[in-house]
Amino acid sequence: MNGTGGINGEVNGMAGDGYKVDLSALDNAIKKLNGIIADLGKTGQDTKHKTVLPSGALGFSPTCDAPFKEAEDLSKAHDDMKTYLESVVHHLEEVMDDFGAKTKRAHGAYQDAEADTASAVHGTSSAASSSSGTVPTAASGSMSGV
Protein backbone atom coordinates (compact mmCIF):
# COMPACT_ATOMS: atom_id res chain seq x y z
CA MET A 1 0.00 0.00 0.00
CA ASN A 2 1.12 3.52 -0.52
CA GLY A 3 0.54 6.75 1.35
CA THR A 4 -2.54 7.68 -0.66
CA GLY A 5 -4.79 5.10 0.90
CA GLY A 6 -4.47 1.80 -0.87
CA ILE A 7 -2.79 -0.32 -3.44
CA ASN A 8 -2.38 1.78 -6.58
CA GLY A 9 -3.68 4.72 -4.54
CA GLU A 10 -7.30 3.63 -4.81
CA VAL A 11 -9.62 4.53 -1.97
CA ASN A 12 -13.17 3.28 -2.01
CA GLY A 13 -16.19 5.32 -1.05
CA MET A 14 -16.24 4.06 2.54
CA ALA A 15 -16.03 6.51 5.41
CA GLY A 16 -12.80 6.69 7.40
CA ASP A 17 -9.80 4.70 6.32
CA GLY A 18 -11.53 2.27 3.94
CA TYR A 19 -9.19 0.69 1.43
CA LYS A 20 -9.94 -0.94 -1.83
CA VAL A 21 -7.63 -3.83 -2.60
CA ASP A 22 -7.73 -5.52 -5.97
CA LEU A 23 -7.60 -9.21 -5.00
CA SER A 24 -7.32 -10.27 -8.63
CA ALA A 25 -4.12 -8.21 -8.89
CA LEU A 26 -2.73 -10.10 -5.89
CA ASP A 27 -3.79 -13.39 -7.51
CA ASN A 28 -2.00 -12.32 -10.67
CA ALA A 29 1.14 -11.40 -8.69
CA ILE A 30 1.14 -14.83 -7.03
CA LYS A 31 0.78 -16.58 -10.40
CA LYS A 32 3.64 -14.53 -11.85
CA LEU A 33 5.79 -15.31 -8.83
CA ASN A 34 5.10 -19.01 -9.33
CA GLY A 35 6.41 -18.66 -12.89
CA ILE A 36 9.53 -16.87 -11.70
CA ILE A 37 10.13 -19.50 -9.02
CA ALA A 38 9.77 -22.26 -11.64
CA ASP A 39 12.23 -20.46 -13.94
CA LEU A 40 14.68 -20.01 -11.06
CA GLY A 41 14.45 -23.72 -10.32
CA LYS A 42 15.45 -24.49 -13.90
CA THR A 43 18.21 -21.89 -13.73
CA GLY A 44 19.47 -23.42 -10.50
CA GLN A 45 19.59 -26.88 -12.05
CA ASP A 46 21.32 -25.54 -15.15
CA THR A 47 23.87 -23.73 -13.01
CA LYS A 48 24.66 -26.91 -11.10
CA HIS A 49 24.59 -29.46 -13.89
CA LYS A 50 25.04 -27.72 -17.24
CA THR A 51 27.87 -25.35 -16.38
CA VAL A 52 30.81 -27.71 -16.61
CA LEU A 53 34.38 -27.11 -17.65
CA PRO A 54 36.08 -30.51 -17.81
CA SER A 55 39.64 -30.82 -16.58
CA GLY A 56 42.08 -30.22 -19.41
CA ALA A 57 39.46 -28.59 -21.65
CA LEU A 58 41.59 -25.46 -21.91
CA GLY A 59 44.66 -27.30 -23.18
CA PHE A 60 47.87 -28.96 -22.13
CA SER A 61 51.49 -27.92 -22.23
CA PRO A 62 53.30 -29.45 -25.22
CA THR A 63 56.41 -30.17 -23.10
CA CYS A 64 54.58 -32.20 -20.50
CA ASP A 65 51.20 -33.82 -20.29
CA ALA A 66 49.87 -31.30 -17.75
CA PRO A 67 47.52 -28.33 -18.09
CA PHE A 68 48.94 -24.86 -18.66
CA LYS A 69 49.25 -22.78 -15.51
CA GLU A 70 46.82 -20.30 -17.06
CA ALA A 71 44.41 -23.13 -17.89
CA GLU A 72 44.47 -24.21 -14.26
CA ASP A 73 43.82 -20.61 -13.17
CA LEU A 74 40.89 -20.29 -15.59
CA SER A 75 39.45 -23.60 -14.47
CA LYS A 76 39.64 -22.53 -10.81
CA ALA A 77 38.06 -19.15 -11.68
CA HIS A 78 35.27 -21.04 -13.48
CA ASP A 79 34.67 -23.27 -10.46
CA ASP A 80 34.63 -20.26 -8.13
CA MET A 81 32.16 -18.40 -10.37
CA LYS A 82 29.96 -21.48 -10.67
CA THR A 83 29.81 -21.80 -6.88
CA TYR A 84 29.01 -18.09 -6.57
CA LEU A 85 26.23 -18.29 -9.18
CA GLU A 86 24.72 -21.31 -7.43
CA SER A 87 24.60 -19.33 -4.18
CA VAL A 88 23.05 -16.29 -5.92
CA VAL A 89 20.34 -18.40 -7.56
CA HIS A 90 19.64 -20.16 -4.24
CA HIS A 91 19.31 -16.79 -2.49
CA LEU A 92 16.95 -15.51 -5.20
CA GLU A 93 14.81 -18.62 -4.83
CA GLU A 94 14.56 -18.04 -1.07
CA VAL A 95 13.71 -14.34 -1.48
CA MET A 96 11.07 -15.00 -4.15
CA ASP A 97 9.51 -17.83 -2.15
CA ASP A 98 9.39 -15.62 0.96
CA PHE A 99 7.89 -12.71 -0.99
CA GLY A 100 5.35 -15.04 -2.58
CA ALA A 101 4.32 -16.50 0.77
CA LYS A 102 3.88 -13.01 2.22
CA THR A 103 1.86 -11.94 -0.83
CA LYS A 104 -0.36 -14.97 -0.44
CA ARG A 105 -0.89 -14.25 3.27
CA ALA A 106 -1.73 -10.61 2.47
CA HIS A 107 -4.21 -11.82 -0.15
CA GLY A 108 -5.84 -14.10 2.40
CA ALA A 109 -6.02 -11.36 5.01
CA TYR A 110 -7.60 -8.91 2.55
CA GLN A 111 -9.99 -11.60 1.38
CA ASP A 112 -11.00 -12.32 4.98
CA ALA A 113 -11.45 -8.61 5.71
CA GLU A 114 -13.60 -8.26 2.60
CA ALA A 115 -15.75 -11.21 3.67
CA ASP A 116 -16.07 -9.82 7.21
CA THR A 117 -17.10 -6.42 5.84
CA ALA A 118 -19.64 -8.00 3.53
CA SER A 119 -20.99 -10.04 6.44
CA ALA A 120 -21.28 -6.93 8.61
CA VAL A 121 -23.07 -5.01 5.87
CA HIS A 122 -25.49 -7.84 5.17
CA GLY A 123 -25.91 -8.74 8.85
CA THR A 124 -24.59 -12.27 8.60
CA SER A 125 -22.15 -14.08 10.82
CA SER A 126 -18.42 -13.56 10.32
CA ALA A 127 -18.15 -17.36 10.20
CA ALA A 128 -18.73 -16.95 6.46
CA SER A 129 -15.17 -15.64 6.25
CA SER A 130 -13.02 -17.40 3.68
CA SER A 131 -10.56 -18.76 6.25
CA SER A 132 -9.66 -18.69 9.91
CA GLY A 133 -7.41 -15.65 9.48
CA THR A 134 -4.30 -17.59 8.66
CA VAL A 135 -3.20 -18.49 5.22
CA PRO A 136 -0.89 -21.51 4.86
CA THR A 137 2.53 -20.65 3.56
CA ALA A 138 3.75 -22.04 0.29
CA ALA A 139 5.88 -25.10 0.00
CA SER A 140 9.37 -24.35 -1.16
CA GLY A 141 9.42 -23.79 -4.87
CA SER A 142 5.81 -22.86 -5.43
CA MET A 143 2.84 -21.09 -4.02
CA SER A 144 0.13 -23.66 -4.61
CA GLY A 145 -3.49 -22.91 -4.20
CA VAL A 146 -3.76 -19.93 -6.54
* End-to-end Cα distance: 21 Å
**Rg (CA only):** 25 Å
Tell me the major beta sheet.
none
DSSP E strands, number: 0
Q: Which residues sit in consecutive blocks of at least 5 with pLDDT less than 50?
A: 1-16, 126-146
Individual helix count: 2
Classify the helix fraction into a percent range. Answer: 55-70%
User: What is the strand content?
Assistant: under 5%
Order of helices and strands: HH
**Shape verdict:** rod-shaped
**What structural category arises from helix and sheet content?**
mainly alpha
Quaternary structure classification? single chain
Mean pLDDT score: 74
Description:
The chain is mainly α and about 150 residues long. About 55% of the residues lie in helices and about 0% in strands. The protein has helices spanning about 25-50, 70-120. Helix 1 packs antiparallel against helix 2 (about 70-120). The longest helix has about 55 residues, at about 70-120. It is rod-shaped, with a radius of gyration of 25 Å.
Secondary-structure blueprint:
Layout: H1 23-49, H2 69-122
Helix pairs in contact: 1-2
